[in-house]
Design a protein that fits this description.
Elements: E1 10-15, H1 21-34, E2 39-43, H2 48-54, E3 65-66, E4 75-79, H3 82-93, H4 97-104, H5 107-115, H6 119-134, E5 139-143, H7 151-164, H8 167-172, H9 190-203, H10 206-219, H11 223-238, E6 242-248, H12 255-267, E7 272-280, H13 289-313, E8 319-323, H14 332-345
Parallel strand pairs: 1-5, 1-6, 2-4, 2-5, 6-7, 7-8
Antiparallel strand pairs: 3-4
């Protein structure tokens, strides 16, 4: 099985948080570049060591950073930043400068772009579409968000389409305030209307409601573009050219989680590739002392969990075990060794 090839130009690394998928994504990026493929690794905030190993700093939040001397192919890395990606979308797709400023200066937008649940996942989707459309890389490796086992990311395109087609949005787009910033309709009811307006102001704050109404009005012309791109990304995620690599932690207690996520991927029509059980403790034949006994127990636990998982997923599903390393990779050579180790374990 070839994870990094013309047949699979998009590889999406998924799994629970803390299982090492960011390191594996970076390692496979180095391997792809060494194989001569121009490669982009898109990831979230990696550890300081991994940043150093890739040579990626804060500038990667604004642009793709070339990783020097990775291989005959180019290697670039990009850090996904929800707020900055959102800003770039507004800059690119707003119909004119006035509309652009109206959205970017809106207080509700400033809060929404960096903090609303689901925004990070949807911005990853938009960034993926951006990269795919430009076609500057032969291989794109995406490290998915470390939330809810990446299901939020995979469901983001359909959720955004549902939201844009929802009745709630149509209500939000109605002109709720007049030119003087007063709630439409309340002036017709005199004192009762003013009391109702004061009541709303005390409960939720009219300034917040005005900001929200202003935001949705300004954002309206961009909704069709968001809907169109979300549908294209849905198609891309379901394409046979997109392969998913599921990374799991070792041990029997992780099996249910791994099987659940594998089933969700397949039910959604995604093409699941190998499952990688990462950071497995080695087996110890002759343990010495308490530390040796502990390592022996951990090694036996991980071996037993791996065999149990193999029996449950069946022989048809490639299952790869990667050993726990003594220390995290700190340079390109160490990343390349991990990538080569993974690729070498895949069935031919």
């Amino acid at each position: 099985m070839s994870l990094l090839s013309e047949q699979n130009p998009l590889l999406i690394v998924v799994g629970s948080g803390g299982v090492g998928k960011t390191t594996l994504a970076a390692s496979l990026g180095v391997s792809a570049a060494q194989a001569g493929r121009d490669t982009l690794v898109m990831t979230f905030d990696p550890s300081l060591r991994l940043k150093d190993a890739l040579g990626v700093g804060e500038a990667a939040r604004d642009e793709e950073i070339e990783v020097p001397a990775a291989g005959p192919g180019r290697l670039a890395a990009s850090l996904l930043d929800a707020g900055r990606t959102f800003d770039r979308l507004i800059e690119r797709y707003a119909p004119d400068d006035a509309a652009r400023r109206r959205i970017l200066d809106n207080r509700f937008y400033r809060h929404l772009s960096g903090s609303l649940a689901g925004i990070l996942e949807y911005m990853a989707v938009e960034r993926l579409f951006e990269v795919e459309s430009e076609g500057r890389y032969q291989q794109v490796i995406l490290d998915t968000p470390p939330t809810r086992q990446a299901l939020d990311f995979l469901e983001a395109p359909s959720r955004i389409v549902q939201f844009l087609d929802s009745g709630a949005l149509r209500i939000a787009l109605k002109p709720w305030f007049d030119d003087q910033g007063r709630l439409r309709g309340t002036t017709r009811f005199g004192a009762i209307g003013r009391r109702f307006e004061r009541f709303l102001d005390e409960i939720v704050g009219l300034d917040l409601l005005r900001d929200m109404a202003e935001f949705f009005q300004a954002f309206g012309p961009l909704f069709d573009g968001f809907r169109r791109r979300a549908r294209k990304v849905e198609e891309m995620l379901g394409s046979s050219r997109t392969r998913f690599l599921l990374v799991a932690g070792p041990g029997e207690e992780r099996i249910a989680d791994t099987l659940f996520f594998a089933r969700k991927l397949q039910e959604a029509g995604h093409h699941l590739g190998p499952i990688v059980v990462n950071r497995m403790h080695p087996t110890v034949e002759r343990p010495v002392g308490e530390a040796g006994a502990l390592f022996s127990w951990l090694g036996e636990r991980d071996r037993r969990g791996f065999e149990m998982l193999r029996g449950l997923v069946g022989e048809a599903r490639p299952l790869v075990g990667l050993p726990l390393l003594a220390e995290e990779p700190t340079d390109l050579r160490a990343l390349a060794e991990i990538g080569q180790s993974l690729v070498a374990r895949l069935p031919g």
